[in-house]
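Illustration 12: Putative ABC transport system permease protein.
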Amino acid sequence: MSLSLSAKFARRELRGGLHGFRVFLACLALGVAAIAAVGTVRAGIQAGLEEAGSALLGGDAEATFTYRFASDDEREWLASIGTAVSETVDFRSMLVVDTGETTERSLTQVRAVDDLYPLIGNVTLDPPIPLSEALAGSSNLPGGVMERVLADRLGLTPGDPFRLGNQDFVFSAYLDQYPDNASGGFGLGPRSIVRTVDLANSGLIVEGTLFDTNYRVDLPPETDLDALETQAKAIFESTGMRWRDAREGAGGTATFIDRLGAFLVLVGLSGLAVGGVGVSAAVRAYLAGKTGVIATLKTLGATRRTIFLTYFLQVGALTLLGVALGLILGAGIPLALAPLIEAQLPLPSDFRIYPAPLFEAAIYGLLAALIFTLWPLARTDDIKAATLFRDAFASGSTLPRWPFLVTTLLLIAALLGAAILFSGTVFLTLWTAGGIMGALLILILASVLIRWIARRMRRPTRGRAALHLAFGAIGARGGEATSVVLSLGLGLSVLAAIGQIDGNLRAAFSDELPAVAPSYFFVDIQPDQIDGFRERLADDPQVSQVDAAPMLRGIVTRINGEEAVTATDNHWVVQGDRGVTYDDTMPEGTRLTAGEWWPEGYSGPPLISFSAEEATEMGLEIGDEMTVNILGRDITGTIANFREVTWGDAGIGFVLSVNKTALAGAPHSWISTVYAEEEAEAQILRDLASAYPNITAIRIRDAVDQVSSLVERVAAATRYGALATLLTGFLVLIGAAAAGERARTFEAAVLKTIGAPRSQIIRSFALRSLILGLSAGIVALAAGIAGAWAIQTFVMENDYAVIWTNALTVIAGGIAVSLLAGLAFAIRPLAAHPAQVLRARE
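Figure caption equivalent — predicted structure in token form:
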């Protein structure tokens, strides 16, 4: 009976319209929309990647070998499972252009292809000619194509010659699109495509040089991909082959999109938390205005359950409306902006309505609304019939009864569980939740402290009326301090944390680089070239340091007889191939943390030196056996020592080093880092590239620019999420200011009656907003700095320093937003006539 009666009361209450619930609906809709939009974009990109999986991979399946070609047995097996097999070779090289007396060089990512390429998909060139025609070349030179940015950098137009290693080519066309561009991962240079057979005399693809071979297979339609993957790994597990199929066509790109999307959804949850403050405030303000109605209902015999259900059903109906509006916006905005988004994406996408992200956003919205409205609704119990027509809602216990507390805790646990389930990242979800809860707690405590300080500051400012009035309003019970600090503070906290993380990442990649990083990283130096390479640099006064080491690539396949992936819980070291070096004696500057180095000239069973930090993470101990596959050959050695390896200075570092005789006879090349004055870099590159055309030089500053560009795009996406949070906080702030407009009107009327000039009143309003904005900004900055420090220190494991320019921007933003909202809702109170206002309060 109480449910049907409550439903009838709720319907009658809803007839009054949405007055008092506009901020409620706006905050809830915006929070849900942000999460739904991120999820829809992520789903659209993922769907595009899945639909174009074969084209992105360049085949239905792919077998990759590190620094070698497939053996006859491997080629035979690949041919047996498919209808066609295409071989490509991927490596970095210097593309050289002679222009008169000068020579221009630029790093490029070369894909050498056969006549079957592309096996699946199409290559688009400008001018629009077939790839086979472009690679056939002219003027007795084989042809090559390259991305426009590379051609423009070197001043090339179709018909101009260029050189790779010792081989000359003619530039035939600009490379606009090619099918497997999303599967190759991060590249340091623009793409060039030539034929593999045309590189036979280039000196670039020989044993020991750094290259990957990829064999794309066109499979019959009925092929069982799971069974084929199991078979491939079982047959070629010990050869170092890496296997992928069309389901993983985008490689790490799909994983990156998924993780970035999950992170942005978590950022969106912080916006929903800010909106929750507004939702809670709106419900509280609405119920405060219903004190007389609730007291009257209790006088007439309405039960506690009936009253609670009445307003619960009313708020529930409005919650469903707010969530529905958010879902419409979250799904509609990506669809409306689809052409613009697709034009900016280098990946295929398919934007349409996806139920999964909308369901996820709806769950988040409903749970957040329940969490933030339950306490205000529970406090209807505090209104007694005997307190009819009194301001009873502002009195009573601060906390609701224990069943509501338990329910709230269960709802928070459900929200956390949903976030973990949907994001798939327990660690990041708990960090985000802890940060949000910690920031809310800090802001609540800060608002109490601000009110306490304001009350203490009233007396010393008695002679300055405007400031005295401002402190009085801030310190008043039930004033604006709590709502302003919470709504504005949480949004600014997220923005402050992101600004600090962004600034520290930029500092790590650029500001600190010139003092610690080498100028060039040279690869593919052949063993018979290393002495001449060193001689060129030895007597150069502008070269301060040259480090060089032999390098091979290997895949850790087994540890103590167990599969490495299983033994180390899929640690990053066993994911793909890693650099391997050898040493006869312990290198200068090496610091052992455990074990001993092998004696000089050691020629016994293979011994391994392993990075100490990674060894701890993988649970390795001295004496453990490790099997490494190098060029298809298994080498099993015993771990003899652990050593410190530094990764942060862009120098040479190897996780794994073995004794020299363990790799005797294995084809390999050398790598080198060169530290030189910036003005000497160009001449060093010219001399070494002219003497050794096969070597590849990677300019560290260019590499850092590439990484910085990627970081900037991620940071920009995160900042948009933070700005959505800040916008939600601004809406809550507007709601709080609007709710306080009546009180300001009465305050202004009283002050005018006792003779206060309009300028003094507006100064008091402005000072109130300024002090609250400054306080919210300072508290948010402290919370943001603490959160950024925790993420930088414990998640990213980087050094941390406060970026004061970003910090001051946050404080200035807090003052500006608070002042804007406060003054916007001071216009009508200042314009009101005191007689009308005071008469209405009688």
